[in-house]
Design brief:
This protein is an all-alpha fold. It has three helices and no strands. It has one domain.
Length: 80
Amino acid sequence: MDNATIWEWVGYLASVVVAISLMMSNIKKLRWWNLIGAALFVAYGVAIGAYPVALVNFFIVLIDTYYLVKLYREADSPAS
């Protein structure tokens, strides 16, 4: 299997993971799955030289990370 084929499969995997994330009803699970899919797309985009793909998915990774931190902090804080 050549290098191009491996990265093509990473792109397919990223697509499947993002699609799975969109089927989640639990927001934490959605964010985690989406974060993984976006991170795979960052790797894929960089590997094939598709920097706009890598850039937008890096931004999505940051967004998912922000909201996950926020969700976990809210869960840990005592109720007012």
